Amino acid sequence: MSQTVDRALSILPLLAEGPADLGRVADRLGVHKSTALRLLRTLHEHGLVHRQADQRYRLGARLFALAQEAAENLDVREIAHPHLVALNEKCGHTVHLAVHEENEVLYIDKVESRYPVRMYSRIGKPVAITVAAVAKLLLADLPEAERRTLAATLDYPRYTARSTPDATAFLAELAKVREQGWATDLGGHEESINCVAAPVRGADGRVVAAMSVSAPNVVVSAEELLTLLPLVRRTADAISREYSGSPPTKEA
User: Fold this and answer.
1) Distance between CA atoms of residues 224 and 76, nearest Å
2) How far is Cα 178 from Cα 166, in angstroms, rounded to an integer?
3) What is the pTM of this model?
4) Torsional sign, CA 206, 133, 154, 128
5) Phi-psi region of 55 (alpha: psi -120 to 50; beta: other; left: phi over 0)
6) Which element (helix H / strand E) includes 172?
7) Average pLDDT, the chain
8) Structural contact between residues 25 and 58, judged by C-beta atoms closer than 8 angstroms
9) pLDDT band at 68 (very low <50, low <70, confident <90, very high)
């Protein structure tokens, strides 16, 4: 039975390449045409495959409806939270999760640090959009025209001497973040607070959220915090895989 299911599911990525006739499906699966036909008929009955007038098969409308329904019901915060907690337990620092909604970047989850010093960030509160590491990741993923339009409309408060000064510098920073795939805020919002962040991506590769680790200088230096970047990126990748439904990576 498991082999039958595996063969049936193997038909779907083939048809994602475009319509295919019975012979091509049988050849791809390495089975007799009668076996391929039984599999196609079963998928057709469930609306996952559709037979065209030319007798070729393509993906069915039911498959797209299921994908849309699943995407609408995904809760990135619910998926990410156990990973954020695990990261906090490993490093001890404050961990955030943020999303981009209606021209604001908002924190939607937070796991507090284990030491007495607390950050003023709050769930549901907008971040400092021109300096926050999570904001840079989310905005860097926008198309270039949208990035330029947004940059031109923003104010650029000088929170500290390290704050982003203007739209030109902001666009340059977003381009850098887009290329390297991670971001930092090293004293740009609060002189004594540093942050490293990594993106959470959906099945289409777009950034759906950003997560970060933040810590004050009195606990850990910026250089020491940056050594956690590989761990932060692995955590974000794990969230991305679970969110997008990708299979887990095999341990070496």
Assistant:
1) 29
2) 18
3) 0.71
4) positive
5) left
6) helix 167-180
7) 89
8) no
9) low
CA max distance for the chain: 72
Average pLDDT, stretch 141-165? Answer: 94
The backbone torsions φ and ψ at residue 196, rounded to the nearest 5 degrees and listed phi first, read: -125, 145
Pairing of strands 49-51, 183-186: unpaired
Q: Which amino acid does the sequence have at 202?
A: G
Q: How far is the C-alpha of 216 from the C-alpha of 72, rounded, in Å?
A: 37
pLDDT of residue 166: 96
Amino acid at 207: V
Angstrom distance (rounded) from CA 39 to CA 35: 6
Contact 208, 98 (CB under 8 A): no
* Helix (H) / strand (E) containing 216: strand 207-216
Examine the pLDDT at 149 and tell me if it is beyond 60.
yes
CA distances to 20, 188, 241, 242 from 54, rounded to whole Å, are: 10, 62, 38, 38
Backbone φ, ψ for residue 228 (5° rounding):
-85, -5
Higher pLDDT among residues 208 and 116, named by residue: 208
Q: How far apart, in whole angstroms, are the C-alpha atoms of residue 159 and residue 172?
A: 19
Q: Which residues pair with 214 in a beta bridge?
A: 94, 195
Contact 44, 33 (CB under 8 A): no
